[in-house]
Design brief:
CATH topology: TIM Barrel
Order of helices and strands: EHEHEHEHEHEHEHEEEH
Number of domains: 1
Helix content: 25-40%
Oligomer: single chain
Number of strands: 10
Radius of gyration: 18 Å
CATH class: Alpha Beta
Largest sheet: 4 strands, parallel
CATH architecture: Alpha-Beta Barrel
Number of helices: 8
Distance between the termini: 10 Å
Strand content: 15-25%
Shape: globular
Length: about 240
Amino acid sequence: MSTKLEIAVFSVEAALEAIKAGAHRIEFCENPLEGGTTPSFGSLATLIALTSKAIFPIIRPRGGDFFYTEYEFNSMRSDILMARKLNYPGIVLGLLNADGTIDTARTKRLVDLASPMEVTFHRAFDRCKDPFKALEDIIATGCKRILTSGQVPNAADALPLLKKLIEQAGDRIIIMPGSGVRSNNIKEIITATGAKEIHSSARKMQVSQMQYTKDSMQENLQATGVDTEEIKKMLSVL
């Protein structure tokens, strides 16, 4: 069975382009400068009406850390209910305690609330204190996969840890390496770790299509898009 490629995107247009390029699954976010936050209702309603592909919206109320207040937790609950009502097949989330352990109690509450949607635990995992203990804790909450760079900025620099996590996980949960994954290293990462799924943003900045710009504003109006040729290259390697 070939390795599945998930692509993180930050707009409806980028999601559709990534799907057309052949991505197996989409992590749908907004606000790339914040590391990805929950898309708006308008974006979610628009995208789900345009494709039957597996789209997993991120449920993240803000950028920064992953230690959430009760207000933020309630916001996540509402966003999950919205995604479920719109018939999304899965979501992506992650919660930590202040001491760097997994917030298992509230994670399980959200996983239960999301059912029957699949839940991926995102790179909050890379900020936890003990990845091997965290792996067991996340399995206990009912999450189906963990997105991780191996607790360093780029997954290619954490191959031994990623391999150990995949071996420990076995068939109980999917460990999906991500961050810094490109066509020039995707084969090495998969070969070294045995990963069955892999994640990339394949980002590409889009130049503004405005014919008129105000020079006095001194702005760079580029937006975060997706590099479809890079997606195709990664898929050709897979």
